[in-house]
Every structure is written in structure tokens, then in C-alpha cells.
Amino acid sequence: MFTGIVTDVGEVRSVKPRADNLHRIIITCVYPRVELIEGASIACSGVCMTVVGVGEDGGRTWFAVDAAAETLALTTVGRWRHGWRVNLERALKFGDELGGHLVAGHVDGLASVVAREDMTDNPSVDMARLVLHVPPALTRFIAPKGSVALDGVSLTVNAVDGDTFSVLIIPHTLQVTTLGALRQGDDVNFEIDTMARYAARLMDAK
């Protein structure tokens, strides 16, 4: 489990297809080499991935993950190339501060940016309002003041209108995640709130 609070923005160093229909992806990061172990889980732009290799090159830590066909097809991982920036978060430990909301790292689909409004009333404060479109089947899980994860970032929904919803990105989030680079037409990995998922399941069971 994760919290949706990004702790580093890594960079894809290489993507290599394998004979077993997997893609081996190498990502560089600022995490200390000694703190990463094989088998650990890291959320990579919202996708829970398992560390299968760790090393250090030129004073910078790298870790390797494998992406299967479903992940490549249903998330942005299939588009990753050398230089792609990736929001990173290590798995939640008991006793850690839960600053965002519980995020599983199980992407439900892609959300597309249909509009971006930069808030420039105060030149010293950069904020942005994003409007995103999601597949119709997922709209029932989104509610005003509820939580969603976009590329692994925990955000609060401002408003919902049909199959679109909006979020306000504060200056800190714009600076320390990849969301600051988003523009109209971009896709992000989208995960609904776990509580909304189970509430809907209970309603269906009735």
C-alpha cells in the first residue's frame, strides 16, 4: 500500500523487451542504494511494481522492474522511454504518516487531460486546475471532495461533471511531481479510492 505522497521523481534509463513478454525497465532515483532490496514494492507513476534488481552507477542509485503485457497495455508504462520522468513512492510501513489516502498501486485506467487552467491571479503562486476525462464505467467511483490518484499522486476531487472531473494542483505538487508538465491531451494513470471501490461493491451486492 501507498499514500499518494511522491518522494522522488525518477528517470527511466532504459526499456528492454524480454523473450518472456516482459519489459525490463531501469529507473534511476535518489533513494539510498542500501535501503532498496529485491522484492520490494515501489509505486512508479501510480503503478505498483516489484524491484527485481538494484545497483549504483555514477553515484546514482538505479532499480529494475519488469512490466507484463497487461501493465504495458492498460497504463502509461507501455509508452515509457529513455528520459521519461516517473513519480516514485516506496511502500507504506506501519508507523508512517498517512499524508494522502490509501493507494494500492492498482491502476483502474487512463484519465486524459481535457483542459488545464493556470491560476495566475497571484504571480508569486503557481497553481493549476486540471479537468480530466475518464472512461464512463469509472465515473460512479468519483465524488466531489473524494480522493483519486493521478500518476501516483493523491488528489482531492473538486467537481464532477458527467465523465469529467477537476482537481486543483497546489504549487508544491507542481514542483515536486510530474503533474506540473501535464498539458491538454496527456494521459495519466488513474486509480479510484479504495473505499469507493468497496462501497460500490456492497451496493451491487444488495
Set out the fold topology.
Elements: E1 8-17, E2 23-29, E3 41-44, E4 47-57, E5 60-67, H1 69-74, E6 85-90, E7 109-119, E8 127-133, E9 147-150, E10 153-161, E11 164-169, H2 171-176, E12 187-192, H3 194-205
Antiparallel strand pairs: 1-2, 1-6, 2-5, 3-4, 3-6, 4-5, 7-8, 7-12, 8-11, 9-10, 9-12, 10-11
Distance between the termini: 28 Å
Give me the strand/helix succession: EEEEEHEEEEEEHEH
Envelope shape: globular
By DSSP, the count of extended strands is 12
The count of helical stretches stands at 3
- Rg is 17 Å
* Lateral strand order in the biggest sheet: 1-2-5-4-3-6
Low-confidence stretches: none
- In CATH, the topology of the largest domain is named Elongation Factor Tu (Ef-tu), domain 3
Description:
There is one protein chain. The chain has 206 residues and is mainly beta. The chain has two domains: 8-90, Elongation Factor Tu (Ef-tu), domain 3, CATH 2.40.30; 109-205, Beta Barrel (Elongation Factor Tu (Ef-tu), domain 3), CATH 2.40.30. The chain has three helices and twelve strands, in the order βββββαββββββαβα. 30% of the residues are buried.
